[in-house]
């Protein structure tokens, strides 16, 4: 078992965009997707400075020193609903509890904005994680990157999970 490391979670800054994009791509590739699949997903996994500073989005990252552990992004859908746009953990930190910590932080941020429901379009490899966090599967949605690929759509009721 690794010793715990000191880390912080902070709001992402515009200059973090390239590092967030790189981490998203490496974290997605961790699951063994083909190079062609990864090329098709690259636009969806690329984050811009404009997104990060846009007041509609909420991006936060976890870091230790100069190492990026992971990040997440939220986007309001309505007054009471947000979408988890992204939650990625660096492959070096996967399965060490950082995904759970980031998800709990995202839940608190969403609740602070008055959100009652968090929508999650999940990668199939992450579905079990979100279910363990209290989400429930409600449908399948077509991938924005790969035509004919369907992804789990989950919903997390924040009033019941975060008290």
Account of the 3D structure:
By secondary structure, the chain is α+β, with helices and mostly antiparallel strands. It contains 6 helices and 7 strands; from the N terminus they run βαααβββαβαββα. Strands 1-2-3-4-5-7-6 form a 7-stranded mixed beta sheet. It is globular and about 35 Å long. The relative contact order is 0.15. The mean pLDDT is 92.
What does this entry show, briefly?
The protein is of the alpha+beta class and 163 residues long. The chain is 31% helix and 32% strand.
Number of alpha- plus pi-helical segments:
6
Query: What is the N-to-C succession of helices and strands?
Result: EHHHEEEHEHEEH
Main beta sheet = 7 strands, mixed
Helix content bin: 25-40%
Q: What would the average pLDDT be, to the nearest integer? A: 92
Distance between the termini: 30 Å
Percent range for β-strand residues: 25-35%
| Structural class assignment | alpha+beta
Which stretches are low in confidence, meaning pLDDT under 50 for 5 or more residues running? Answer: none
Shape: globular
Rg from alpha-carbon coordinates: 15 Å
Number of strands: 7
Q: Strand order within the widest sheet?
A: 1-2-3-4-5-7-6
């Amino acid at each position: 078992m690794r010793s715990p490391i000191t880390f912080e979670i902070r709001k992402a800054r515009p200059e973090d965009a390239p590092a967030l994009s790189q981490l998203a791509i490496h974290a997605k590739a961790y699951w063994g997707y083909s190079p062609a699949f990864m090329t098709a997903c690259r636009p969806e996994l690329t984050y811009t400075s404009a997104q990060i500073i846009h007041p509609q989005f909420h991006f936060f990252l976890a870091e230790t020193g100069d190492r990026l552990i992971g990040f997440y992004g939220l986007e309001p859908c309505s007054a009471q609903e947000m979408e988890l746009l992204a939650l990625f953990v660096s492959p070096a930190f996967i399965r060490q509890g950082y995904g759970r910590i980031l998800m709990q932080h995202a839940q608190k941020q969403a609740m602070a904005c008055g959100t009652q429901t968090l929508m999650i379009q999940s990668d199939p490899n992450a579905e079990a994680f979100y279910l363990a966090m209290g989400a429930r599967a409600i449908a399948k949605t077509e991938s924005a990157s790969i035509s004919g690929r369907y992804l789990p759509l989950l919903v997390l009721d924040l009033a019941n999970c975060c008290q």
